[in-house]
From TrEMBL:
It comes from Manihot esculenta (Cassava). It comes from the Eukaryota. The lineage of its organism: Eukaryota, Viridiplantae, Streptophyta, Embryophyta, Tracheophyta. This is AB hydrolase-1 domain-containing protein.
Amino acid sequence: MTLYARIQNPQFFTLRNSAQAPYLQPPASLKAAKTKPKTCTADELHYVPVSSSDWKLALWRYLPSARAQRRNHPLLLLSGVGTNAIGYDLAPESSFARFMSRQGFDTWILELRGAGLSSLDVDGYGEDSEITLSEGERTDTVYKSNKSISKLSEKFIHLFERLSDVLDEGKNSAIAIQIKDFTRKIVSFIEDGQLPAKPQFYNFQERFSSSLEDFLKQLDLIVKYDWDFDHYLEEDLPAAMEYIRIQCGPKDGKLLAVGHSMGGILLYAMLSKCCFEGRDSGLASVTTLASSLDYTPSKSSLKLLLPVADPAKALNVPVIPIGALLAAAHPFASRPPYILSWLNPQISAPGMMHPQLFEKLVMNNFCTVPSKLLLQLTTVFQEGGLRNRDGSFFYKAHLGKSKVPILAIAGDKDLICPPEAVYGCKTGVSMHNRLPQSS
């Protein structure tokens, strides 16, 4: 659900702690965008390189109002899984980011890798003039007729070698097997085509082009959508925080942070891991909206939306196009005969959003995510709650040691993260319900 639409009767849980000195990552490389697309409604758009990858993360910046009292710390906003910055700035009259900037906060929205305007630069990939890829449309594969089949074979082998590291790592074993099988088929096409006596030779050009097109689509998915929750936690979030610290220069080096859904889970996980490693998080305080590390005490509807029952099946699909699926389903959920009407309450509590704003949210706020990201998040339904990628670290275990003040907010009409799920984070932490349960 959206960060404001899921909370009809909010309940506030205060986790009382104190702060420490900041832990600073190596300096980030400062790079602000010279221009910003129309979709970016922020005052400024910045790009943050992630040193251990080819990703450049988008940061939407909202400058503090000159008429408001200037705050001591910049504010970082983190969105939920598979969402971009639009949820925090849906319209001028429905913008949490604008509201906070008017209160004097230097406000930043982070778009994690794969979300919104964040971009991936892969050296050499897609540069060949003989293969043209147009994003958002059917890929057009152009084969120059004066090239020999052996030249095509070399080209294919070269393309495959670019992905060899990904396949050899074995991180996506099921996907790797599919790609290797696909490779053998294309090699078979090449070998068949090199025999002039065979009738396949005459339609080989068309067959190869079609096969190579499908193969390149698969390679693009493997390269672009190869990350999980730990990548967000260990690479994206620290890079963005350091960038903001350098830009804003708070005296104590700390940031304020608000996280919605998975954004709040990221903040919980960072606090827990920093406590375990004996370092400071660099956060002055944290507010979470509909977030939990452990959903087992709740009847969250998320169980129906995530591939909990059979994770192996999900590995056969490299990505989950959340945005495309919701956009396609929206007409069936919002118009007669309303056959998918059950979807809408998962996004927004009934009556909480204007229909036009709700439609804008559904059509623009959601993105595509890797299956293995969702698979790691399914551990919130297992005993002990969310864990790292190899299952050796439980993020909930050390949260109670954090000295950073936390305000956890839940909505009693939230089907995905109800109040009892938020209580699932309370182990070892002083938590107080500040508003009575609503009827």
